[in-house]
Amino acid sequence: MVELNGLWGKFYRITEWVARLVYVQCLWLVFSIVGLLVAGIFPATMGMFAVVRRWQLGETDVPVFPEFWTTYKQEFIK
What DSSP assignment string belongs to the chain? Predict the structure, then answer.
């Protein structure tokens, strides 16, 4: 991770979080549509929550797509 100080450091961290959230939202949207909305919206939401929860626990370097995909498959089967 790039370590910047001052205003540019704060700006970098904010834009990094925004980019992460946009990526997770795009995954959620794509997998909701692929899962035919009704059947896919709940597993996609669980996948999104699993990724965001890991971020909230301090694991910011978690691979987003594998975590999302694993949770999505588990929840879709249920």
Answer: -----HHHHHHHHHHHHHHHHHHHHHHHHHHHHHTTTHHHHHHHHHHHHHHHHHHHTT-TT--HHHHHHHHHHHHHH-
